[in-house]
Amino acid sequence: MINSGMITPLMAAYTPQVGGGAYYAYDQLKGLPDWPERYDIEARISDEDRAEWQKPERQKVMLQSMLQTMLADRCKLTVHREVKEVPIYTLVVAKGGVKFRETDPMAEHPSGFRLPGGGVEVMNFKDGLASISFYGISMAPLASWLSGGGMPVQDKTGLTGKYDVVLKRVEMGPPPDEQVGGASASDPVGANQWDIKALGLELDKGKGQVETLAIDHIEKPSEN
Fold first, then answer.
1. Rounded Cα gap, residues 200 and 29, in angstroms
2. CA angle 40, 42, 48 (to 5 degrees)
């Protein structure tokens, strides 16, 4: 069950085909409706599809197909994709290597918000400072998460596993010429709000192909 407005179903139904993003950041969704309503979505796998659903590698593809069909049927949704070359950050491994560990598949982790690209996000507060814990996250979803609210971030780490990662918010005290995570500490936007360098990662500036999902038409869901 997904309890949300339209953003979460759209993020789950459509993923970028260009740029390697695990899901669209909020800034990469155009034409979102401003409806205040939130919706409960309940779905059931048909008996003939149940065996296929049990295959982990098929679940994401099947879920996207079902959500796209539902949104087209119930909300009359039509979309198109746009690709532009724009300034981006690339997420890379810093000299000295990463400072986080691979996820232990046998370990129990706290429950939290499940990211569309995989992994669980848990918000923490201690002594007035915020941090985010990610469990079972790969680098592509982490890069997509860092894209929210700022310049797009694309994964170029070459890391292929799933990891437990803790991101701490940057304290904005250092002089402007000091670097935090490969980007100026004086620019607290998007990815630069978080201490990437403490993870053994850096953000390099460059240009790249970034895809957005544009909503051409959407209506409030039809009645059951």
1. 30
2. 165
Residues in Cβ contact with 205 at an 8 Å cutoff, skipping those fewer than 6 apart? 87, 88, 89, 183
Query: Which is nearest to 23 in space by CA: 76, 78, 64?
Result: 64
pTM > 0.90: yes or no: no
| End-to-end CA gap in the chain | 16
CB 124 within 8 A of CB 130: yes
Q: How many helices (DSSP H) and strands (DSSP E) are in the chain?
A: 4, 13
Q: Are 124 and 133 in contact (CB under 8 A)?
A: yes
Q: What is the pLDDT of residues 133-169, one digit of tens each?
A: 999 999 999 999 898 767 899 999 999 999 999 998 8
Q: What is the pLDDT of residues 164-181, one digit of tens each?
A: 999 988 765 444 343 333
Half-sphere exposure of 111 (CA within 13 A, CB side): 0
Domain ranges of the chain: 2-83+212-217, 85-209
Give pLDDT, residue 77: 96
| pLDDT tier, 130 (very low <50, low <70, confident <90, very high otherwise) | confident
Using CA atoms, how far apart are residues 84 and 28, in angstroms rounded to an integer? 11
